[in-house]
């Protein structure tokens, strides 16, 4: 099972809980072993311990630990070679006589042992420096004694034992003789490196917390703080193969190729610190110090050019200064046209030998003779300066040139250019730096026809450093001479150096999307040029005056059309920020590719250059908001590639990918021009700043999110790579049809099957299967027809014969192995789908006594369906039968999980049986219900026959017609669900089905038809709103503290709520950035009123019920909201109703609804005595008696 690779196994032995990550002698929660109770220690965070206390670890060695003084010398030394390794038996120190077989490794620094020779992560690490003695004990045994404990081992022979003892003694002796105690010693001379992060973390699979240390390029795990100080560790994780992934609230994963470590911190804030520390450790592990050591060889480059922090690791390759990480962030804010920021450790390809030599020749000290010649002491930076001070100083220094040493020729452009041409012939690069950043043009004309540019002139004199400096500043923006005014951060786009020209075919620009096909006659041939960030088109290549053009910074989107979309086979569209659309075509695909490549390179920023390597259909800039920051929009770059949306956000370190076919929800808020993308754990809002390109993006994304073909992998998928149509059908049949006799053998209504299948193919994500609306046999036939029609079949056309031939194998073990082999070779989606389907069929045959579908019957149905045959090949059925029969073995299923699934299905069946027993159907399949008019009293009750299709509006008019009540204008009659126990009521939506509501009513609930006195005010309020959303403070109380928000269950608390079109979010206060809780609006049921027993602070309250049926067991949560005024409560309730019913709160034409309802129900209900479903026990007993005496007695008053 996958769990073995992904989680830490916790086996049980003699009532003692051991962990596979712990050593055998580490019994969790063992009072005899631990010096103190770990539970008392873990309450402290890593900040609770001073560095002077925590630096006493004897485990973290000098190798792999990078101190400021050591980084320059040997930042990532190799691991010590293994001196000896082999199998030994180990005896736990608790006194057990049972030895465990362990793979033991010894190197110069550590003695480690593992479960097997293939394991990467050890069970225990013993530093050789902590070993005090090694001694022989009895036959073939020896003991390794450390400062605080003894480890017992046993070899195969006395000779092998002697060899182990000898090599361990030599390793310990070498340590002592060399005096290399370093971090392994507890002596006063020890000065161990400081860890970047340390403290207790929970690790999935362990009950006790581990003490975790992040240091340099490694993460170390200890049992507790005492073990850390003693240096006896569990294992170490090399971060050069690690990746840190944020999961849920307090949890995160450290993923390696060998194991996933799932950690949980004590708080969200601590989790963020741990994630940042581990990601920096990964970056440290992947760093290359070769360039840094060369740059740091110049003494002044060891200190930041701006704040004097030590060992700076970043540089501006055009400004020729080296700076620290904190200053690098402010340099990036200047934009690449002012400061080209590069890393000394990670951007190795940028650092040519000439560029490195240039930085060594100049150095920060000489460079600051120009850049920082006039810095007032009051404005100078120090390493501890805040971000605002850094931003102001760096902008003034490099964008404005406020502190630079002005050249004596400043202001005289011609003389500056002449001086530059003369100076590049020498090796004085500091003078060149001064000339360039005081206004001399790198691209000026030298006056020498043979060497027309300053770069070519410098090359002719073999001045390589001058060439490098000039090349890095060809497009640099010279500092402005004016000073003053606000210094807001402005991002500049470097003038592109892309050049391209050629003939294209162009149509007239337009201000609306292109929906029709453009013929060749509508295109005009134009000569087009791209140069210096400007795109121009001319009548011909002979004309000097362009017909028109675009600046690259005006382009917001480029779309590549599919072939043969227009008269010219290959076309692309350009969208400008002035709401204009330009269509261009070419004769060849290669020509379009070259133009698209050149144009996108010119308007996509350098930070998103990775997107240009994709074969995109659409690329551009869009505004967006995400779930953590909804207050302000940010600009990101997006590229649509098939069904993948590649993104580069301004606050992310790299490219992110959104799988559009796996989205949980995709919707458009047309009134706001917002595209909402909901994926697991994240919601992204893409905003349409310009209507034209937003329409193009929304249409393209919606199309990409749909199924794109007939194969399984082209369908809309769940997170588990199962087609949504399969997942929805299987789930519905499991919930509603598992006990249906002859399931999958009976036919449904062909027209309904075809319509439902078409809905799934059009957009499976939007289809919701509901009991009462969809019949089980229709859904089962949709699933069968889908598998019969899917291209290639679930077994694939290439491998289907191999599956069929496997049935001929006589050896059962060989047959199962062959099935497992074929399963492993299936494509990912096919494998996941087959597993889900066989699991479903296995569950069905487990209840064959109820549905009559045993193994053989299922095989008869699904064999020809899955193999897409005519049913004559008996082997198809045999494959399905054998896969179901050997499901646990073939699919490597956890039997406990499977049994849990079957138990849950049994519970579902029993619940449905009990529900059907409480609600007996009439002879026609309908139900009888007691409904009251205006109030609950005997004279106001009506007994109504409720068909499955009846909606609330029809029930309302049925009651009104019986009492012959005429409906006047602005009379808002409505059917209410009333709960006497909770003292709440809820108006049913006029289109809401009545029957499901009846099924959910408790004994204290009933239905009543009365006027909705607040409806008119609600409709007026909704009509006045531009967008249907609401936010504000309300008093909040949990139901028995079920939500885990830490609130007292007996009181109300002020909380800030935001109700949007998709979710209701709860914040601790208005300024909070992250919600404490978030619920989908569709899953909320809102009632007016709160029980007086709860002592609400006001009388205007709402009771909210959240029902989540997506979990294995349906969850129900209930909480209470109190508003300050009745109007405020009415507005919240109106907003809930409007969002849940897509703006249709009340029918536009009530008379039409009344006329279209079903004909008045015949009160003569045949010869079956029908009993009302609701009412008290006495009422129901009286009704039974009345029916017995006179079947029509209850309808005398109608």
TrEMBL record:
Compartments reported by the entry: Cytoplasm
Residue span(s) of domain Ras-associating: 925-1014
Descriptive protein name: ArfGAP with RhoGAP domain, ankyrin repeat and PH domain 1
Positions of the PH domain: 81-173, 194-283, 497-604, 1027-1141
Domain (Rho-GAP) ranges: 707-891
GO molecular function terms listed in the Swiss-Prot or TrEMBL record: GTPase activator activity; phosphatidylinositol-3,4,5-trisphosphate binding; zinc ion binding
CDD domains in the record: ArfGap_ARAP, PH3_ARAP, PH5_ARAP, RA_ARAP1, RhoGAP_ARAP
GO annotations of cellular component type: cytoplasm
């Amino acid at each position: 099972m996958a769990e073995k690779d992904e989680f830490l196994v916790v086996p049980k032995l003699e009532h003692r809980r051991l962990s596979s990550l712990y050593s055998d002698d580490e019994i969790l929660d063992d009072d005899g072993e631990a010096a103190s109770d770990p539970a008392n220690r873990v309450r402290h965070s890593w900040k609770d311990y001073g560095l002077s206390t925590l630096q006493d670890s004897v485990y973290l060695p000098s190798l792999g630990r990078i101190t400021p003084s050591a980084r320059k010398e040997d930042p990532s030394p190799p691991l010590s070679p293994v001196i000896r390794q082999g199998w030994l038996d180990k005896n736990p120190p608790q006194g057990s006589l049972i030895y465990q077989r362990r793979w033991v490794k010894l190197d110069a620094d550590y003695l480690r042992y593992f479960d097997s020779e293939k394991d990467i992560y050890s069970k225990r690490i013993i530093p050789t420096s902590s070993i005090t003695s090694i001694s022989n004990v009895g036959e073939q045994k020896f003991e390794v004694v450390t400062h605080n404990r003894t480890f017992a081992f046993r070899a195969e022979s006395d000779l092998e034992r002697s060899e182990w003892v000898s090599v361990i003694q030599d390793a310990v002796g070498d340590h002592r003789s060399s005096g290399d105690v370093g971090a392994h010693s507890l002596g006063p001379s020890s000065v161990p490196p400081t860890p970047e992060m340390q403290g207790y973390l929970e690790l999935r699979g362990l009950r006790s917390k581990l003490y975790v240390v992040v240091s340099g390029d490694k993460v170390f795990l200890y049992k507790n703080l005492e073990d850390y100080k003693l240096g006896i560790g569990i294992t170490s994780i090399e971060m050069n193969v690690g990746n840190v992934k944020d999961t849920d609230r307090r949890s995160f994963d450290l993923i390696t190729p060998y194991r996933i470590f799932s950690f949980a911190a004590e708080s969200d804030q601590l989790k963020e610190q741990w994630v940042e520390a581990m990601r920096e450790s990964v970056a440290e592990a992947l760093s290359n110090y070769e360039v840094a050591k060369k740059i740091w060889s110049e003494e002044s480059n060891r200190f930041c050019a701006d704040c004097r922090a030590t060992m700076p690791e970043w540089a501006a390759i055009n400004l020729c200064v080296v700076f620290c990480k904190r200053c690098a962030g402010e340099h990036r804010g200047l934009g690449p046209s002012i400061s080209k920021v590069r890393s000394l450790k990670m951007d190795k390809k940028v650092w040519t030998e000439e560029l490195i030599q240039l930085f060594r020749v100049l150095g920060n000290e000489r460079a600051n003779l120009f850049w920082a010649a006039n810095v007032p002491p009051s404005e100078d930076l120090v390493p501890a300066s805040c971000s605002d001070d850094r931003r102001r100083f760096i902008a003034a220094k490099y964008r404005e040139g406020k502190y630079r040493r002005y050249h004596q020729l400043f202001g005289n452009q011609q003389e500056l250019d002449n001086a530059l041409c003369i100076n590049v012939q020498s090796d004085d690069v500091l003078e060149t730096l001064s000339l360039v950043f005081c206004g001399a043009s790198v691209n000026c004309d030298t006056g020498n026809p043979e060497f027309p540019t300053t770069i070519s002139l410098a090359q002719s004199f073999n001045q390589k450093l001058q060439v490098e400096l000039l090349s890095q500043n060809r497009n640099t923006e010279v500092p402005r001479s004016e000073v003053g005014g606000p210094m807001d951060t402005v991002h500049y786009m470097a003038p592109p150096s892309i050049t391209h020209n050629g003939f294209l075919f162009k149509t007239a620009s337009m201000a609306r999307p292109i929906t029709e096909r453009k013929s060749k006659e509508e295109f005009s041939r134009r000569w087009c040029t791209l140069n210096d960030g400007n795109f121009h088109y001319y009548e011909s290549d002979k004309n000097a005056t362009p017909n028109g053009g675009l600046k690259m910074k005006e382009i917001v989107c480029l779309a590549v059309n599919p072939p043969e979309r227009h008269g010219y086979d290959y076309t692309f569209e350009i969208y400008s920020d002035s709401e204009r659309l330009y269509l261009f075509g070419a004769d060849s695909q290669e020509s379009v590719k070259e133009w698209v490549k050149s144009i996108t390179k010119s308007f996509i920023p350098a930070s998103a250059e990775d997107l240009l390597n994709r074969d995109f259909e659409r690329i551009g800039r869009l505004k967006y908001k995400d779930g953590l920051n909804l207050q302000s929009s940010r600009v990101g770059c997006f590229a649509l590639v098939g069904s993948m949306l590649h993104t580069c956000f301004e606050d992310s370190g790299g490219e992110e990918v959104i799988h559009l076919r796996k989205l949980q929800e995709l919707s458009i808020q047309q009134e706001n021009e917002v595209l909402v993308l909901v994926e697991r754990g994240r919601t992204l809002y893409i905003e349409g700043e310009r209507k034209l390109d937003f329409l193009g993006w929304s249409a393209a994304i919606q199309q990409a999110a749909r199924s794109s073909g007939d194969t399984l992998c082209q369908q809309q998928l769940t997170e588990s790579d199962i087609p949504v149509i399969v997942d929805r059908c299987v789930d519905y049949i499991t919930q509603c049809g598992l006990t249906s006799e002859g399931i999958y053998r009976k036919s449904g209504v062909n027209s309904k099957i075809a319509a439902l299948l078409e809905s799934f193919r059009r957009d499976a994500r939007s289809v919701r299967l509901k009991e009462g609306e969809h019949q089980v046999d229709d859904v089962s036939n949709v699933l069968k027809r889908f598998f019969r029609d899917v291209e290639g079949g679930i077994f694939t056309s290439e491998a289907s014969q191999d599956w069929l031939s496997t049935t001929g194998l006589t050896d059962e073990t060989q047959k199962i192995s062959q099935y497992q082999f074929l399963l492993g070779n299936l494509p990912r989606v096919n494998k996941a789908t087959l597993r889900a389907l066989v699991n479903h069929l296995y569950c069905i045959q487990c209840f064959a006594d109820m549905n009559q579908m045993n193994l053989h019957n299922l095989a008869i149905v699904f064999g020809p369906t899955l193999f897409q045959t005519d049913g004559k090949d008996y082997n198809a059925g045999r494959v399905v039968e054998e896969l179901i029969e050997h499901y646990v073995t073939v699919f490597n299923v956890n039997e406990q999980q499977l049994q849990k699934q079957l138990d849950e299905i049994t519970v579902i069946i029993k619940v449905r049986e009990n529900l059907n027993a409480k609600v007996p159907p009439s002879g026609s399949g309908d139900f009888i219900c007691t409904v009251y008019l205006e109030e609950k009293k005997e004279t106001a009750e009506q007994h109504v026959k409720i068909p499955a299709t009846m909606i609330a509006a029809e029930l309302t008019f049925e009651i009104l017609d019986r009492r012959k009540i005429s409906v006047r204008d602005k009379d808002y009659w409505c059917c209410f669900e009333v709960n006497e126990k909770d003292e709440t009521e809820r108006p049913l939506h006029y289109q809401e089905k009545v029957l499901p509501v009846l099924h959910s009513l408790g004994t204290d609930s009933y239905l009543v038809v009365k006027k909705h006195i607040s409806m008119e005010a609600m409709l007026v309020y909704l009509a006045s709103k531009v967008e249907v959303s609401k936010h504000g403070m309300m008093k909040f109380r949990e139901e028995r503290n079920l939500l885990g928000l830490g609130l007292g269950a007996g009181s109300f608390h002020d909380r800030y709520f935001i109700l949007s079109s998709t979710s209701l979010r709860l914040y601790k206060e208005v300024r909070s950035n992250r919600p404490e809780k978030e619920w989908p609006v569709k899953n909320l049921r809102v009632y007016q009123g709160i029980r007086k027993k709860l002592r609400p602070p006001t009388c205007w309250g709402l009771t909210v019920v959240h029902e989540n049926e997506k979990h294995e067991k349906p969850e129900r949560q209930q909480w209470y909201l109190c508003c300050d005024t009745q109007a405020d409560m009415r507005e919240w309730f109106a907003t809930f109703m409007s969002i849940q019913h897509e703006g249709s709160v009340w029918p536009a034409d009530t008379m039409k609804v009344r006329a279209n309802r079903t004909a008045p129900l015949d009160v003569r209900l045949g010869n079956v005595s029908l009993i009302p479903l609701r009412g008290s026990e006495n009422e129901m007993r009286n009704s039974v008696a009345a029916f017995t005496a006179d079947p029509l007695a209850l309808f005398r008053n109608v």
